[in-house]
Amino acid sequence: MPTAASTLATPEQLAKYEPVIGLEVHVQMGTRTKIFCACPNEFGSEPNTNVCPVCLGMPGALPVLNRQAVEYAIAASLALNCQVREKSIFARKNYFYPDLPKGYQISQFDRPVSEHGWVEIAVGGERKRIGVTRVHMEDDAGKNTHDGYRDSDRYSYVDLNRCGSPLIEIVSEPDMRSADEAYDYLTELKLAIQYAGVSNCDMEKGNLRCDANVSVRLKGAEKLGAKAEIKNLNSFRFLRQAIEYEILRQVALLESGGRVRQETRLYNSDLDETFPMRSKEDAHDYRYFPEPDLVPLAISGEWLDRVKASMPETPASRRKRFTEEFGLREYDAAVLTQERVLADYYEQAASASGDPKAAANWVMGDLQALLKVEGRSMEDSPVSAQRLGELVGLVSKGELTGKLAKDVLLKMAATGDDAPTIVEREGLKAISDTGALEAIVDGIIANNPKQVEQYRGGKTTVLQFFVGQVMKATRGQADPAVAKETVERKLAG
Ligand code: ADP
Ligand code: ZN
Ligand code: MG
């Protein structure tokens, strides 16, 4: 990037400073309806079809709090180890923007739903806790679109379907010290929220949005430096790149005698640069005040306990169970718990197969390859977990060779039939009758005297030739290990 390179810090300059990062994360919760009205909370509908007087902010329309949204906010709070307040207050956050017809967001201010939590990440082999300052609920704004419509070079369009979608904002302490730590924090946070069943956290659909606050200070300094807030980070990769760029920019600025301005910046992924959006000095005053149309939210200990009791297993506990119960390696357990849908799929396949380790290999290997070829996600896998487990079970029980099983999987995806049906129809059952296999081996030995002589003369690599002949004669239905053992025995005898 020729534009930026000359203004960025050198490694020597960088080494004198410590970066400080805090994240503000918005999560759209997966409720059926919006937070204060009964409109569907849906992505991808025709613009301005999921709206009503409440979410359009018509005068006199009154909000009614969605119980499910509160339960999700509680579940997310618990998943992030936060303390849920007995009483929290909704507040109006006032500002003008075309995608906000009410002229204010209903949010929470000094009494949010929960506080004082943490998320654990791994840093250099140690566990490090990143503080979660608070979780608060709010309603989402609409969306302005600037392209894809008639005359969109001259007009902006406003879609209010998202207006009133239930959000939680999760604010971290300024506890992260590198772009990697921020990346890992967001990864663990996403996992915790997904597992709690609160949201699918799909960044592409805007269900997970992240702003990064970045500052630097001389190593050993106590006082925090002035921070820049970077908006528009719509992927994990961009989050890391934007923070890395911003650190280099700030260090270079300080090293050349300048000062970091407290401001909001945007990340441009094409240029891999951040640039100023608006200055925080003239940032709006939101004139927060308590929302007069909603009573304070009271969460009793009993309600809290009920939500707690209904919480699904955490990713950490699942990872542990996969190693202890199923005997998986740490690494495999981590891979299989990276997404909740994947963990759910694997667990079902494992129990249907009766061989959890083999199931892990199939899920991570052949199934992933199949999904990739078909351009499908785990959610709409052409082969169900139950059926994959059944296939793996056939291999484990020696009724199907691993090699033929790979073909059977492809046929399952193509035809929608299950493994036993395909094996039966195509006559692929493994040869378990040792007598039949021995007869085949005897025939092959009789027909290849030259190779037999070579083998007996000490050229043991010829063994592979015989095994290959057996596999060919049985159309892959012989177990290669058994074939090899039989050939060896016969040649020795
Ligand atoms: P603001 O008043 O600008 O909204 P807050 O104090 O509310 O700032 O913090 C917002 C986010 O910025 C939090 O995630 C917090 O951890 C982070 N943060 C605050 N100060 C700094 C700093 N000096 N450097 C980096 N991040 C910071
Ligand atoms: Zn509505
Ligand atoms: Mg703030």
What does it look like?
α9 packs across α11, α10 crosses α11 (385-396) and α14 crosses α17 (480-492). It is elongated and about 95 Å long. The chain has 493 residues and is of the alpha+beta class. It starts with a helix and ends with a helix. It has helices at 2-5, 11-14, 67-79, 179-195, 236-255, 301-309, 315-324, 330-336, 340-353, 356-374, 385-396, 402-415, 419-426, 434-447, 449-456, 462-473, 480-492; strands at residues 17-28, 83-84, 87-88, 90-94, 104-108, 114-123, 126-139, 143-145, 157-159, 166-172, 208-218, 228-233, 263-268, 273-279, 289-290, 297-298. Bound molecules: adenosine-5'-diphosphate (ADP), zinc ion and magnesium ion.
Q: Calculate the terminal CA-CA distance, rounded to whole Å.
A: 72 Å
Described by the principal axes of the CA atoms, the overall outline is elongated
Q: Which range best describes the helical content: under 10%, 10-25%, 25-40%, 40-55%, 55-70% or over 70%?
A: 40-55%
Mean pLDDT: 91
* Ligand catalogue: adenosine-5'-diphosphate, zinc ion, magnesium ion
The gyration radius over C-alpha positions equals: 30 Å
Q: Structural class per helix/strand content?
A: alpha+beta
- Total strands: 16
Q: Compute the number of helices.
A: 17
Largest sheet, in brief, is: 9 strands, mixed
Q: Which residues form runs of ≥5 with pLDDT under 50?
A: 1-6
Work out the strand percent: 15-25%
Strand ordering within the main sheet: 2-6-7-10-1-11-12-13-14
